[in-house]
Give the backbone structure.
Amino acid sequence: MIKIEKLAIGYDKKTILDNLTLQVNKGDYISIIGNNGVGKSTLIKVLLGLLKPIKGTITKEYNQNQIGYLPQLNTNKKDFPATVEEIIKSGLQLTLPFMTKFQKEQIKNIMQTFQINHLKKHSFQELSGGQMQKVLLARTLICPKEIIILDEPTAGLDKESTKEFYQLLKNLNKKKLTIIIVTHDYKYLSDSSHILELKNKPFYGSTKDYLKEVKS
Amino acid sequence: MISVVEMFQYDFIVKAIIIGTLVSICAALLGVILIQKRYAMIGDGLSHVGFGALAIATVLNVSPLQFSIPTVVIIAFFLLRLNEKHKIKGDSAIALISASSMAIGVMVISLTIGMNIDICNYLFGSILAIKQNEVILSIVISILVIITYFFFYNKIFTVSYDEEYARATGIKTNRYHFLIAVLTSLTIVLGMRIMGSLLISSLIIFPTITSMQLFKSFKQVTISSVIISIISFFIGFYLSYEFASPTGASIVSVNMIILIIIIVITRGLKLCRR
């Protein structure tokens, strides 16, 4: 699905991660971990095409619109007037100013899937952190996606909401959705199929191997 | 009541009302986006650029609209480019361009024709400011702004709400920034004739802030802003006619009073519910 070869990334030509090679296959669930400043979010931005790599290549087998992206919860937009329905609708990427019957159905279905129908007319900013991330995930997945990239989606969420969110990801992964997630929630690493630990010499392998290495 | 009927008997007033209403709609539509993108001051900056351009157009004896529209659009584009490249921070860039344009405008006028009624009208607005030959152009441009906004409504919402998400999903956000800048420039240039360059940005800010006290959805805030903007325009315009006060200042005063009333009522209701 995605082939990363000899990738070097960084800002202003300053390399923060070098010589990364790995392959992401359909249905993989990859957790990206590492200390602050090692390049986790930069790697995500490069994968999304928001930043150019310094060196190396990324070969993708899909279009940009087949990638879903869930950024960190942005609380800066506290006064932006928007309802849950409007936020989810924005995921449809409508070109015309009106919605077709099919698109209205899509909104209804995704809200049912995520069990957020009751929040439809609620102001987005009045929701709890967990509900907000659920809504944003619904926005991301309203159109069919091959892969979803998440950047610390549970930052700032309470324990219960975090648990619920990871359960949601696990269920989506069971339906063969490929997941790449930057996370600090080590408790849920065992949900993932692979781990990419960014450090001086990055580790990439199965979660089983990673956990073995950590124990040893 | 008699003076309202009397007001509509004058051809120039009817034209000013048509253009003023259209500009009020344009400004209210753009208000929500500009405030949320922290671009509210761009409106203010561009109106100063508009003043500079109008001053130069007056001195050169060319059509004010035909000269100021391209000038303000070009400056708006440069302002956004400066913002994107982070060479100069957004608010500093606006302050620099705004003060420079104002200074150029005042210098050009002082050294040539000197301060006169026309220039005062540019600063504070006048119902007489729109020349007959510019009426059709003003109407066409404001209708174009409204149609463009509605056509791109969904994309504009996505880009305004979450730019990083929009970029990640393949939306060319720069194009929409440019579109917003062009629509804002056009609205400002058209509106500053009636409102005055010092007060036109309030037409963008007040109705949206008032509506945000009342509604929580983007669509509701947008519709409410349009309604409040039109009502404020009509009341302000009437007061300006009745008391011969500057149009811009009268409209802003009405907007301000509506905002204060709404804030008092909404805060009062909140306190009562506690």
Chain A touches chain B at residues 48-50, 63-65, 67, 69, 71, 74, 77, 79-83, 86-87, 89-90, 92-97, 121, 123, 125-126, 139-140, 149 (CB under 8 Å). The beta strands of chain A are 2-11, 14-24, 29-33, 55-60, 67-70, 147-151, 178-182, 194-197, 203-206. Chain A is about 30% helix and 25% strand.
